[in-house]
Amino acid sequence: MAVTWSKLLALAIAAGYVVAAALTAPSPGMIVAVAALAFGAAALIWFPEYLGGSWINRKKTVLGTYDEPGRPMNRPTRDSHPGIVAVMGWFFLVGLPPLVYWLARP
User: Fold this and answer.
1) Buried-most residue among 4, 22, 29, 34 (CB within 10 A)?
2) pLDDT averaged over the chain?
3) Which of 99, 97, 102 lies closest to 17, judged by CA?
4) Is 25 exposed, middle or buried (0-12, 13-18, 19+ CB in 10 A)?
5) What pLDDT is attached to residue 93?
């Protein structure tokens, strides 16, 4: 895993959310909630291969699907592409907070 500028930027943004929550939140529970959500989104950016996978080491076929002949619906399953997982992490980190703020204001 290479540490890139985008990963460091994600970590800085998440830490900024936690600092802002620590300075303005009315209760410690709010700070913990903001920290969990911010660093959870940053984890999607830092570890997209692991978090987009199936978390277990199973045998893959030539097409990249998992060899599971005993599944009830017999549909092949695949891991999520790491790029899509990282984009969702950026959405949760940067796109969702302004959207929630815009929808929640009176």
Assistant:
1) 34
2) 84
3) 97
4) middle
5) 94
